[in-house]
Sequence to fold (209 residues):
Amino acid sequence: MNKGTVLVVEDDKAIQNLIGTTLEIFDYNYLISSNAKDGILKATSHNPDVIILDLGLPDMDGLEVIRKIRSFSLVPIIIVSARTDNADKITALDAGADDYLTKPFNTEELLARVRVSMRHKMQSTQVQPQNNIFTNGNLKIDYAAGCVYVDSAEVHLTPIEYKLLCLLAQNTGKVLTHNYILKEVWGSTLASDIPSLRVFMATLRKKIE
Ligand code: CA
Fold:
């Protein structure tokens, strides 16, 4: 059974091959673009379920690509980048990316990210049965609408930040381990994901505080 279509925007042939082969083995359809312009074109014409985007492309900065795609689509975008600086990651998430992987990454990490993004996409199109509202101080989560408000102003969260916030809200007053959070949010317990988690917590905190 085909699990969905992934658009891979990456100019490095070796990484294109690695990602393409991995996706094929695990029954995903995939399309490859070697530059930003072709990537944006394929994002509009093929309506992929997930985009894997390299930040270092020959013709345009990856951040600009995220902004362009976000102007017409909410498709989950997973960044792959050799940039290890947390500030770069936060900038990418702020620009509208959903998740990121730092090169070099292993295929297990990649597949975990793709699975989570596909799941988010399906969840966001499902109708929630109840009109549940969570409030704590000036924070309000409307589960039915998938919206978050601080002091009645809506806050835009990426799907992962939203999932993290819901998890924290469900466990108010409890101390959650990194492993527990990783498992609930990404379905993984890889120790290498802990730095990612810290970045997501930092961007989430910045948005809701
Ligand atoms: Ca590159």
Observations:
- DSSP finds eight helices and nine strands in the chain.
